[in-house]
Amino acid sequence: MKQVKSVSLLVLAMVLAVGFASCSDDEEVLQWNELPGTWECISEKGYVYFKDYPERCNEWNNENPRLLGTIAVFRSDGTVKFNASESEWILKDNLLTLIHPHLGSPLEIAYTVLKLSSDKLILEEFNTGGEDDYTWRYWNNLTFQKVK
User: Fold this and answer.
1) Is residue 76 within 8 Å of residue 69, measured between CB atoms?
2) Which of 27, 88, 127, 133 is the most exposed place for a label (fewest CB within 10 A)?
C-alpha cells in the first residue's frame, strides 16, 4: 500500500511539473499604447488566388508590392493617415480595424495584429469570397517599423 501511495505521489508530481512547464511566458503581450506614432512599411508578402481565373493569381514577397514604403501615422485620437488617406482606427483584442470613408458608406479593413512593440508592427489580412469561400482568397502580411 505504501508503494502504491509513493507511485501515485510521484505520478502526481510529474503531471504537475509537466503542466507548469507547458505554461510559459513566451507569448508576447501586445503593447497597445505603442501604436500611436509614425510607421513605415518595410516588408510586404502575400498572395491572391482566383479559382476560376488562374492567370490572375499572384504572389509577392517585396516584389511589386502595393504598400512597401507606405507611411502610416496613427494618432491617439483614433485617426490614421494611411496610404495618403484619412481613416479611423479601432483596436480590440488583437484586431486592428481601419475604417475608410467610402462613397457614403464606410469601408472597413480588419488586420490581425501579430506583433506590436515599441519599434515593430506586424499585420496580417486574410479574406475569402465566393459561393464556397474558395472562389477567391487574399492574404497579405505587412511589417512596419516605427520611425517617430
Assistant:
1) no
2) 27
